[in-house]
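RETRY 2/3 - previous attempt timed out on the joint model. Re-submitting the same 230-residue input unchanged.
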Amino acid sequence: EVQLMESGGGLVQPGGSLRLSCAASGFTFNTYSMHWVRQAPGKGLEWVSYITSRSSPMYYADSVKGRFTVSRDNAKNSLYLQMNSLRDEDTAVYYCARDPINNYGFHRFDYWGQGALVTVSS
Amino acid sequence: DIQMTQSPSSLSASVGDRVTITCRASQSISSYLNWYQQKPGKAPKLLIYAASSLESGVPARFSGSGSGTHFALTISSLQPGDFATYYCQQSYRTAQYTFGQGTKLEIK
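RETRY 2/3 succeeded.
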């Protein structure tokens, strides 16, 4: 059974940092691209970041570029999101999601974690 | 950036009804269009990918259509578990995986 489980969420002050983790199981992690998607309270979905199976290339939404860094450790079946210079508007539930497409093709998010809440507030 | 616009934003319907939600892209995205269902407090669930391909395990009452800039998600006969929020998403542009604003489907 495919499982994705986020951890590392919490309350952080504006300007602070936080690192989210996503533990994967039930599939061959090193053959899948992965994404981070977020959802502000009561709002819609916003794609945040994408990393291919071999960690390059990586892509970011304009709203987080230069502040967030995605990485992965295939030996540990884990995905990470390092979030720096956090702002109030980064407050959201952050989901990791699996993408069965590595290169060109119909990218989609076929499995999602349960989400980790990040609250940025003073 | 490619903008995705869903209509309606909310919809009331009854069990057994046939329902269609539409999604329009600001430019042609071929068939690079996915549909997700999200229930309160839960992660989204993939229903349809590549505009019309049914994800494994998803009931056949869900179907997708369209290409270019106009797309639709149809539920042929609403079941109690289908009341949720639905999102379209384009995957035409790498690193611009834009979602629509969502359509909340409520019980009439």
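The interface with chain B takes residues 35, 37, 44-47, 50, 59-61, 95, 106-110, 112-115 of chain A (CB under 8 Å). Closing ticket.
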